[in-house]
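Continued from yesterday's entry.
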Amino acid sequence: MVRPYLVTGMNITLRQQIERIVSLSNDEFEWVLSHFTEQYFKKHQIIINEGDYVQNDFYVVKGLIKSSHTNPDGKEHVIQFALEDWWITDPQAFHNQTKATLSVNCLEDSKVLSLTLDNKEKLCRELQKMEYFFLKKTTAGYIALQKRILCLISSTATERYYNLLDQYPGLIQRIPKSMLASYLGVSRETLSRLATI
């Protein structure tokens, strides 16, 4: 279900995230919020299919969403989990307006605020504070990706497990062990052993 976001009250979660980086007046925030669309997705609902064009970046207000890639043998590799107050999309497909190489789907019923590329660029063009906000978020995303790659190639399974606990507090109780194992690049048996350490 999609509808334009009605600015009858402010979305406190989004405003708090923005204001950790820049401060906005009430009028500025309402203008920013007017560029988002509120969407609701059911558990197991696919938001982005591999091979589809990607229209939106998604800010998670409530719920849990994952992005993943399925290789030609049918094995799924989990790339990211997005809990409340996180952003998720296929960044390459969204920014280049190309077909997705990732799929994005809901692990729980989820409420998101979606933002099109046109609206994101308009926010950046017309309000310098938002350009700075998105620059900082993008930079943080690149740093997190670098840390994840280095963790996968140079850390032990135990180190990757504890890194996951730090990065995603409470996640272990919300998702199946098979998805955790996929994200960590370990077998379910190894994950079960790690969970008892």
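--- second protein ---
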Amino acid sequence: MRVFGLIGYPLSHSFSKKYFSSKFEREGIKDARYELFELPDISGFPELLRQQPDIQGLNVTIPYKQEVMPYLDFLDESAERVGAVNVIQKAGSKLIGYNSDYFGFKKSLETWLPQDPSTLSALVLGTGGASKAVTTALQDLQIPFHLVSRTAGANCLSYAQLQEQPHIFQRPRLIINTTPLGMSPKTDAAPAIVYDLLSPEHYLYDLVYNPAETLFMRLGKEKGAKVKNGLEMLELQAEKGWEIWNEG
């Protein structure tokens, strides 16, 4: 029996187990199962591999997408460019790190945006691990962007600056939330942007998928903006992970 699974902490609201278990049943894949492996500390990763010798591949989620990298033997170009790993392939005794978040977000965005996405510019809300895959995809799509965080920095605006300088919203028409704000159960939260300045010309993409419509999305829709949640990205990155695990 081939074992696949997810490492992270905590894992109480895992998308991956439900998705892959349903996939295996739907497609008649009987030689594989998907498990959750909660690791309170990444230092427990080698011991997990010793205890679970049948592991063939793993997904990686918060907070270990960067912390797991020193434990791997090789990094695929996708992981090197993004600077984070969310898929691990076990090839013999070697561990190879990949980033399928990049693939999932890029493909989802390309199919949703107008035919020429390079006519847009973007605000990326958040500077955590998820934002790294997003900004790499934006670079490849030739969409200029600014990061937005609680504190300003190089190529990074603060939320206070957005409030104080509303003209910043005049050009960026794509706004991507990479933070967990609005995720269940805290559904009454949303990034502190100036929603009154949104219009039907704006596109709001929320990486959060639970709930299906976040407060960020709802406030955008009230101004006529087009909105999308992160479910398709998750499904695309999961399928890319499955493809990686079954290569060769």
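The CA atoms of residues 122 and 174 lie 5 Å apart. The helical segments are 15-26, 45-51, 77-82, 100-112, 129-140, 159-164, 215-222, 231-245. Will compare against the first tomorrow.
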